[in-house]
Amino acid sequence: MRHNQLINNIFGWAVFATSAIVYFLTIEPTVSWWDCGEFITSAYKLEVGHPPGAPFFMLLGRFFSLFAPDTSKVAVMVNSLSATASAATVMFLFWTITHLTRKLIKSEVLSVSEQIIVYGSGLVGALAYAFTDSFWFSAVESEVYALSSLFTAVVFWAILKWENVADKPYANRWLVLIAYLVGLSIGVHLLNLLAIPAIVFVYYFRKYKVTLKGIIWAAIVAIGILGGIQYVIIPGVAKVAFGFDYFFVNTIGLPFNSGVVIMILVLVAASVIGVSYTQKRGMALWNTVMVSVIAILIGYSTFGIILIRSSANPPMNQNHPDNAYNLLYYLNREQYGDRPLFYGQYYNAPSLGVVGEDAIYNKVDGKYKKTSTTPKSEKFNPKFMTVFPRMYSNKSEHIKVYKDWGKIKGRKVRVRDRNETKTLVKPKFIENIRFFLNYQVGHMYMRYFMWNFAGRQNDTQGHGSFSNGNWISGINFLDESKVGPDDILPEHKKNSPSKNKYYLLPLLFGLVGLFYQYRHGLTGRKDFTITMLLFFFTGIAIVIYLNQNPIQPRERDYAYAGSFYAFAIWIGLAVPAFYSVLKKYAKGPVVAGAITLISLVLVPGILISENYDDHDRSGRYMARDYAINYLESCAPNALLFTYGDNDTFPLWYVQEVEGVRPDVRIINLSYMGMDWYIDQQNWAQNECAPIPFSFTRDKYYLGVRDIVFLQDRIKEPIELKQAMEVLGSEDIRSKVKVTSGRMMDFIPSKKFYINVDKEKVLASGTVKQEDAALINSRIDFSINKGVLTQSEWALLNIVAANEWERPIYIDHSLLYTNQVHFLEYLQFEGLAYRFVPIKTARRGSFYGRIDSDILYENVMNKFTWGNVNDPDIFIDEYNEKEVRIIQGRYMFARLADKLNKEGKKDKALEVVDRMFEIFPNNKMPLGFDSLPAVEQYYKAGANEKGDQYLRVLAENSFENVDYYINLPGKFASAVKGDLDRELAQLRNVVAIAKRYSPEELHKELDGKVKALIEKLTAKSKG
Question: Apex CA 712: angle with CA 708 and CA 718, to 5°?
Fold first, then answer.
């Protein structure tokens, strides 16, 4: 037995080493997109990230960052936390599978063949999971999901260890360990809690005789424990802490957080008394329960670091949870709003107004003071309420998806809405369920499941079209009906590294193992139930709980990695299943070894061979370099307004961790609707002085001026500074009464102007001396909407209060949000636009004037592009999309156009050459965003280069059109827009050729386009 255990341990560590080597070979060497920059920053400087925080991840990340030789290596060291945790997850999965396999073998002493099968099952299942798409993705970046997966793996393994010794003394220490790990895991991610139902059933099956009544009670206990931790312990501790603090601060007069300390002392005392009492009375079960709850609380106590670090006022301090009330708000994720789960409204339910109010407290004069209220909930017409609401968002873009996926026909209902009788179409409940099954389960879970165990079409985010983000198998006759023929795909799509084919082998292995476990007697059915509970609660249960809106900003497959973990157990169990069949004809170590080896090749082997090229991030520096480019676009001491995650989190990372441009104040406009965020802008950070802001804190408390109205009471434009004075006034004349009876603030005009101090503008370098004649005496702009959010008026307040003292920039994303209202007064300086008092009309989709000297210096001398043109580096969808978001190719083309107009043709050629060098066709096929740069070659006199790239552009479009027109008829309507766009591109190419190229090239291209159009015309008539 000890010999077997030693071998089992050796193989487990071998699995750890194998997966760790792969992860470290493919790890991203710096920051990645999305939340990674935020997590690395919070780890390195112990700063406070977004709710509900990840304090234990933060502490472990800090430990790993200590091994970085310099700040440029901090990111890869925190990334290595994920790689190490992921490798450890695979190791514990191996031991879990071997445990479950051993239980299915009746022999007291394993033969050599049976030992090979046991270890083989663990190797196949564990290594299969190691190289699955979703798990590998999280293993090489600084996200919480890898560490969360480790907690799931360890607690599930630990309950199986308890199962082995359940009748021995001190066995319950495993249960206490599990409780502690669950508490710690809350400080990483809540996903680990979903392993609790499986753990409860392991306990039930081991301790009790199985009956229907017992199963029902075990399920009730499991759900009770899960709900108790999530809805009682997690928010309850914070709620009690605030109650204590409120009393001791407001009544006794003690400092803030003194009540928290007293509550902790009370908890410690109660714990000692409870444990002592149950121990003396011999109440073993209740003693274990009591100790386990204490262990959960001890693990949960990592959130104390959030309170402590927030009080230190670090630069990143989201929600500013430095007191008990803010911590409660932070843990409840209240800034993200709520969504109905078991009962709620349909998307077109008429609102009957808000119901109830929640008080909002702030620290004022050493006490908690109620400063405003927010609505507790919104009431809707009861005719439009339903159980299990899945289609509830009233956003127009969501409603369209609801109607498409739910195939909504509904039924007409007459309602009274705002004193008006209307006839609305209420969705039927069956349509609600259809959306749930088709979209939330099918598209947002089963699609991800099949990515991991069948194959993946590409890494482009899918919203339901046949061409992007679907699962495939690699078996053509199965795939064609779903994604079209493979052989007619354009070469760059056909050979994309993100196209992965597994030929359904991992799926088939998993199904074989699933049925084998279920059909293997009472022991097998028990373990099948436990594994299925883990699979369900980390998969479909998450789908039900999240109740996601459609059109998510990115794919969400990482949330279901626990479910894929459970399925990998069944993949491993396919090995003993195959052996149980073959041993009837041939058995022995050779057969067992052959089954194991073939299984390793067919599942982990095919997964790693297909996934390696698109999961290898080594050498990829794009997120970091683009973030640096954003900051380097700005003049000294600038205010840079950003918007989304990818425009902000990498910037925080390079500034806070690598120390790039600490003089620039990064202001995320998405957060400016929060009072705590405006507070923080009023403080100095790094080498940046406080921002200018004219309001005191009481003017922008949450619940105060969250929105303000714009009314045309004054027809003439009013000065923006004066408008802010009106907005900040408490005079009753600056308020308007709304239907709820509440008095709301308003601005009496939609037209504004900003006075320009010409001397200050020139002295500060906002405008060059040679452009002095272009400066407007004032900036006029209007706002064509009736309501401003707090983030919008806060931006205007900063602009007005700044008075041209500091440079103000906005990033690309803000151009298209309708939240910036002076777009005619911008200067394009790279990845950011500077606010200048020179009016420049919009040209097509382009904003801003260009100072060629500034833009040339930035683009050609300052900016770096993260090895995007390295042939050995895979450019995934996120990175390619970011190039489009920052208008990377257009940036070079606009600069070259300006240089050509200035007669600087040599410089223009340098710029266009650099663009095609950085963004080559073989990495990012030339398309619409490349044509303006090609035209600049002709304008600069480099006709041969222009002809060369014009041919490439034409060939790309012809290839795409050829694909579209050869698709089967059922796909034709889906690609009509793409086809029209490519034809328009070809017409533009022909027009450029006619204007600049030799007659031969024009005739050639024009002839091909005409022939193509004739072919399409004939096809449409036929």
Answer: 85
